[in-house]
Amino acid sequence: MSDSIVGVDIDLIDGLNEAARSTYPDEFLCLIREIDGVLSEMVMIPGTVYGDSHSFLSQWMAPIDYSIAGSAHSHPGYSNEASDADKDYFSNMGGVHLITCQPYDRKSWQAYNSKGEKIKLPVIY
Ligand SMILES: [Zn+2]
User: Fold this and answer.
1) DSSP states of the chain
2) How much distance in Å is there from the Cα of 124 to the middle of ligand 1?
3) Ion ligand 1 — residues with CB under 5 Å?
4) 109 CA distance to ligand 1 middle (Å)
5) Complete domains list, the chain, with CATH
6) Does this model's pTM top 0.85?
7) How confident is the model at residue 52 (pLDDT cuts 50, 70, 90)?
């Protein structure tokens, strides 16, 4: 779990939003892999159940894969605020977490640290 994340790849943002759109009105979620400190790739979790309104989060175990930097998920509404369940999950897992919301565009996401605090991450184009 890296504590030196320097940015997020625009392709990850686009991919996350695309997945969020296709999963809507259910929630989309995945883990994120970092490459050289940049959040770069979505990592799908086998057997993930979508659409159960955050109850899934607590069932996740932090992965052994140390290139995993955190997670990303979508909200079906227009708020990218972390819920209490989200914050619990973030603190259990550590790392950096993205939440995107409608309209699922390049401005609709927010990054959080493991304390559930909003953080700013530069977008790498
Ligand atoms: Zn959430």
Assistant:
1) --S---EEEHHHHHHHHHHHHHHTTS--EEEEEEETTEEEEEEPPTTPPP-STTTTGGGPPPPS-TTEEEEEEE-SSS--PPPHHHHHHHHHH-SEEEEE-TT-STTSEEEE-TTS-EE--PEE-
2) 24
3) 83, 86
4) 11
5) 7-124 (3.40.140.10)
6) yes
7) low
